[in-house]
Structure formats: structure tokens, C-alpha cells
Amino acid sequence: MSTANIPAPKLSAPAHNAHHDRQPLHVVVGGEHQPNGELGVNPLAQRISAALAQHPYFRRRPPAVHAEAGRITLHGEVATFYHKQVAQEMIRKFDGVHAVENLLHVTW
Fold first, then answer.
1. What is the pLDDT of residues 68-105, one digit of tens each?
2. Cys-Cys link to 30, which of 21, 44, 45, 103 (CB 3.0-4.6 A)?
3. Which residues, 6 or more positions from 83, have their beta carbon under 8 angstroms from its beta carbon?
């Protein structure tokens, strides 16, 4: 079977802003699989996302949060290593958190 007539998907890269546009990140709230196979909203991830969004360091660009079985993963960018540590320590205090994987990237 030939694939010569199948067009390639069109991919577009986001525009690069040299001034590091500080638009809010899309907050990914981790989910849990429901009996019907759908992915539901994880209440722990919701609480953590809300708390981070209220903190002065993270209001403009709150980290993305994923929670599964008490394991929290953070994604996104922060301004300093101190901010990265603050986010991690905030999350550790939530009931139901057993582990934190801090994948926040520090941008200078």
C-alpha cells in the first residue's frame, strides 16, 4: 500500500517572543480514570493548582500540576531556584501528597 498520496499533517510552532511573554500557562489538572473509562478531575490536583495560582510567585504563570495516587508532578517555568523550592514545599504540606516530582524549569 502506497502512502505517497497521503498529505503530511501541518504543524505550526508557536511564535517565539524574545521578551518572554508572561502569559498564564494552561494549568493541567491531573485526573483519575473513572469506571466508564473517562478521565475525571483529580480533587487533590485542583486544590494544589488553586493554591499555586493564589501565591504571589506563581500568579502570572502557575505551574502545571498532575496528581496520581498521591504523587504530584509539577511542570512549567519559574524565575528562580527559590521559587522552584517554594512550590515544592507548598505541595508537600497538602493532605494526600506522598511524593513530589518537581520538573519546574528555572529561567533566568
1. 999 999 999 999 999 999 999 999 999 999 999 999 99
2. 45
3. 57, 58, 104, 106
For residue 95, the SS3 value is: coil
* Residue whose grid cell is 478521565: 39
DSSP code string of 28-75? -B-EEE-TTSPEEEPHHHHHHHHHHHHSTTTSSSPPEEEEETTEEEEE
Q: In this structure, are residues 29 and 53 in contact, taking their beta carbons and an 8 Å threshold?
A: no
* Mean pLDDT of the region 32-45: 61
Specify the DSSP element, H or E, that contains 82: helix 81-92
CB of 60 within 8 A of CB of 97? no
Q: What are phi and psi for residue 18, nearest 5 degrees?
A: -65, -20
